[in-house]
Give the backbone structure.
Amino acid sequence: MSEQQLNYLKENRSKNLAALYDFLKIPSVSTDSTFKKDVRNAGQFVYDYLNEIGFSNLEMIETDGHPIIYGEYMGAGKDAPTVLLYGHYDVQPADPYEEWISEPFLPEERNGRIYARGASDDKGQVFMHLAVFEAFMKTEGKLPLNVKVCIEGEEEIGSENLHNYLNAYPEKFAADFTVISDSGMIAENQPTILYGLKGFTGIEIEVTGPSYDLHSGIYGGAVKNPAMALAQLLATMKNKDEQITVSGFYDGVEDLTKEERELIKNVQGENYLETTGAIQTISEKGYSAKEHTMARPTFEINGIYGGYQGEGTKTIIPTSATAKITCRIVPNQDPERIQDLLETHIEKYKPAGVKVKVKKEKLSAKAYKVEPTDPLIVKAAESYERAFKKEAVFVRMGGSIPVVEWLDNLYEHPVVLLGFGTPDDRLHSPNESFPLNSFDLGMETIVYYWNTFKKE
Amino acid sequence: MSEQQLNYLKENRSKNLAALYDFLKIPSVSTDSTFKKDVRNAGQFVYDYLNEIGFSNLEMIETDGHPIIYGEYMGAGKDAPTVLLYGHYDVQPADPYEEWISEPFLPEERNGRIYARGASDDKGQVFMHLAVFEAFMKTEGKLPLNVKVCIEGEEEIGSENLHNYLNAYPEKFAADFTVISDSGMIAENQPTILYGLKGFTGIEIEVTGPSYDLHSGIYGGAVKNPAMALAQLLATMKNKDEQITVSGFYDGVEDLTKEERELIKNVQGENYLETTGAIQTISEKGYSAKEHTMARPTFEINGIYGGYQGEGTKTIIPTSATAKITCRIVPNQDPERIQDLLETHIEKYKPAGVKVKVKKEKLSAKAYKVEPTDPLIVKAAESYERAFKKEAVFVRMGGSIPVVEWLDNLYEHPVVLLGFGTPDDRLHSPNESFPLNSFDLGMETIVYYWNTFKKE
């Protein structure tokens, strides 16, 4: 019974790709205020699309930052379930620009992939849903279930304004379940049900010493070097076994069960060395790289800086040095508590002679887990398998989607992660891309999935 | 017998200051190729000045980098001594520009100081010598001794080309002694004889992990974080007692004698907390801050960088992280050996899972010491005292002037460091300045000094 929609998508493939490219061309980098207007324009794209295909009660919800796009379709009637579709139209910064083979905001097709910032995360996947809605409206004039659409513009910067709005107006987005396509499959063409996601929290450590950059000859030996102080402090936070040595960090973290280890082992994961170019995998003692990335908490320095970075030499003692850190956390770890533990550790271990300021990342999220046997999850797996002609695997993953945890907490309803990215997509990196194969079979999966809600 | 010159300088003070300002206005940043032409223009300024006051055999010596300005005055005759005057017309980068109160290359007088990049290091002090030469030529038509002038444009980037030229044409600059004004006094108005300088060497450590920035959720736990690897590595190089923990680093370093400790103690040094804004002085265990800066070797991180530095958060594992390091060394430490020791240490302690590349700073220098009782030094002290009306102090200092060591090795003649900077000059930092008082009394000192070579 999905023939009509699939035919419509086939016939309109060129038109759809052209529209997606228009969407990708908008540099909607939410973290950089230079792109404020572009971010809004990307939101407007979603708004206009929903409007054109007949969604109602459209709103561009203004926030203190970038707007949230809302729209709904209630034509399936009171007895039909209502799904909340969440996604985001903002993207990560594209720098370093010089490492892109083609322009980040000028989509290009190469090797069966669409290359552009946001192709996979998350504009490409948001667009697939829009196109599938259109296919239903243009063929049957209706959808098999009621839909509330919430596409935000601040996912890459922590979704703070959506978080506030959700808490202020919970009724607005109330639904029976949520669907999100903002994740990936463990391999190209391998249907993947994500039944667990890590949570997320972060801090910034700023070490300040002298009030200006000092001449290292005149003052070397009189004051503490802030870059060295930072290095010494960071080195107290993780040991050689890649264990996080912050007191209390692992409190409540449950060890992997034999069954989970078996499940992870059987997942045909990616070849980390090949994908990343690292010379060796490095993971927590007692856990494989796959186990650590999928199910154990992490502590990563995302950026470090201080002093002279230019050409040649500048013989100074820098006035300050900074490290940006994020942790991915697992069930039973509370993000605010983790921030407190980090702060306590830093206070205890900070070297003498410098000031250390800890800035806590405002937005964070607990980890998320859903029952793999939930009928909504089972239906999703079946739809996947029908489109990709391959059995779905069930995995936990290291990524975090804070909104998943919020919706889970707020509505206590299942969140279905219907992701179509692949390990080679280079999310957040230069040369992000998305396979055309995922584009086509992903839409097919979504068509099948919505049709499972059709009343016969 | 110096009256004539001092009167001339007094009468021409405004003209001299205006000319100095013209010199300071040229952004001769040698490390940044953007300023290549400006660097040359600053050299041309020196050339033109020497030409105008009657120096001969002028040359703008071309090198692989910036030119060396040469000129001589041989009018004092064969029996008179010949001095080599060394200085540099290049300056440190001015960044961060936004921290300057007035423009770095638009000199401004405030609080009795000239504010501009290079005001103290070294254009201001080079100019004083030019003005004094002029004063002699315009009043007596001659100088009391023969002079060879060597003003280079690459001091701030290691003087590599001067080094090569010196070794290729040692005769060119041969003289009975050298005078350099590129250093400071321990306090404003405190005549200071520097009888020892530290040497200098450096390395850059680049830690590389994945071949591109990775998503920290997907890959955190599978590969080593290069920024953490760098922090862990740096932390093995210095301990909590500020001792450098690189095997062999202190080999041959002589401990301070009781007399030297006494001498350093009696030097009325600067108030480090006041000058630097640090909350506490930190120095090697067993040595005061003054002792460490003046006479003990140092290891400083001049800059550290890797990963995301922008606004907000970017959840990546950076592809690489880099630290720029320089060491100031003391007598009996060989710079190349120190580089080798650092490299050996890094090879031994580098964390698993990353590649580490050590780039050795090409140019370096041994430490320098001169006998405080040498007649040329005694004369300098007397001239200082006469101008500043205060007894001179004798100190060793933490700065390095590689060319001092080269000239010392090459010519085996005394190098007299006649510096007029002060601790508040903020060399290499935003808001560099030079006291007008040093400008006036410094020129007076130089006049007295040259006149000690006058045959009565």
